[in-house]
Amino acid sequence: MTRKGRADRRLDLIAAAHRAIIRHGTEGVHLNHVAEEAGLTSGAVLYHYPRLSELLVDAHHAGMERFYEQRLKRISGMRDPAEKLVVTIRSGLPHGPDDPDVRLLNELGGAAPRNRMYALLLTTLYDRQVSLYQSILDTGAALETFRLSGDSLLIARNLVALEDAYGYRITARHPVIGPQEAAELILDYARTATDNPLKSSH
Question: Is residue 115 helix, strand or coil?
């Protein structure tokens, strides 16, 4: 098998582990579950990942990319801090109650109190999201696009906390809080915190 082939196979296994975690839970998933999702034998899975725990960590990390790396790429070409802030807020929420990436994060959160590695992954993601928001806020303040109501770090932490809270409500199928409603609720806080109308097209 070529090196490229092995890399592709590992990506396939990460995707299979992602599906298995959602189906069986972070603490309930076993090697045979991943193998079944991948259409392989357990031995074939172990050939690429001798330890299931390493595969599960990679699957969780891959699921998190959307909430930092992909958001960062999405706003990298934008100049207007207000536009960046709106896009960042909207892209941090679930697409709907069955959003697989958010369901994966929920599974990770449930296991984090008993698993130091999962706790570290979640803490790192949180800190990176806060830094992303803080950078946008500080740039907006420097350009006088924003007039911040307080410390940028505190505002950034609140924005991430609101994302998490409303994201949970969406996945819990709250009858009146969907992605659009949640985004508007977070934007309402952001408008007050930045003294900017933060207008956006849906």
Answer: coil
Q: What is the pTM of this model?
A: 0.86
Give the pLDDT confidence score for residue 201 in this predicted structure: 55
The whole-angstrom separation of Cα 179 and Cα 195 is: 23
Contacts of 5 (CB under 8 A, 6+ apart): none
Angstrom distance (rounded) from CA 179 to CA 182:
5
- CB 174, CB 118: distance < 8 Å: no
- Classified as helix, coil or strand, 175 is coil
CA atoms within 13 A on the CB side of 93: 26
Q: In whole angstroms, what is the distance from residue 113 CA to residue 89 CA?
A: 27
In this structure, what are the phi and psi dihedrals at residue 5, rounded to the nearest 5 degrees? -60, -40
